[in-house]
């Protein structure tokens, strides 16, 4: 089997045989895979009238468990974006009737974001299709290869400093 990255690597070998361009093979394929995966996921979320970052918020609230609510601060930490970005995303989700925003009765300085019944139904439907799509996107890999790839990508991310601290 041959892919477009093979052509690039062959050109570098011909033009600069003194240069080990093999890292380009890994990074280039990661980038090409990322673009194809992002498009497939974007199209899937669009079928639910969602953007990826909106799905992330809904899914974060869903994973939290009943009563499916979190403080805005906890959402900021879990998504690693600014308060301003979270506010804009929550505004859009609230306008769609998928979340509510209320002052926390136990701490009036805190705002609770909660899934509505409509939001819960939508995220449950969307996550089922999302997982099925991801399985379909990875169907060219055997289960053992997927597990090995996941472990290698985890090792790469940790090496790039993408670890999670215990405080988070």
From TrEMBL:
Secretion signal span: none
Keyword Cell cycle part of the UniProt annotation: no
Domain HTH marR-type: residue ranges: 23-158
Presence of keyword Nucleotidyltransferase: no
Pfam families, per database record: MarR
Chain segments annotated as coiled-coil in the UniProt record: none
PROSITE patterns: HTH_MARR_1, HTH_MARR_2
UniProtKB keywords: DNA-binding, Transcription, Transcription regulation
GO terms assigned for molecular function: DNA binding; DNA-binding transcription factor activity
Protein name, per record: DNA-binding MarR family transcriptional regulator
Species the sequence originates in: Halomonas organivorans
Organism classification: Bacteria, Pseudomonadati, Pseudomonadota, Gammaproteobacteria, Oceanospirillales
């Amino acid at each position: 089997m041959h892919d477009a990255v093979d052509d690039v690597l062959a050109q570098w070998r011909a033009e600069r045989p003194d240069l080990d361009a093999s890292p380009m093979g890994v990074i280039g394929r990661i980038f090409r895979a990322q673009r194809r995966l992002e498009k497939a996921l974007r199209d899937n979320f669009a079928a639910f009238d969602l953007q990826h970052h909106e799905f992330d918020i809904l899914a974060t609230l869903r994973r939290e468990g009943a009563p499916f609510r979190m403080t805005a601060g906890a959402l900021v930490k879990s998504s690693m974006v600014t308060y301003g970005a979270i506010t804009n995303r929550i505004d859009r989700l609230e306008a769609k009737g998928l979340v509510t925003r209320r002052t926390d009765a136990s701490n009036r300085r805190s705002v609770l974001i909660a899934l509505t019944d409509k939001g819960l139904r939508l995220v449950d439907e969307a996550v089922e299709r999302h997982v099925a799509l991801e399985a379909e996107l990875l169907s060219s890999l055997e289960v053992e290869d997927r597990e090995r790839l996941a472990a290698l990508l985890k090792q790469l991310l940790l090496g790039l400093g993408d670890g999670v601290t215990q405080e988070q």
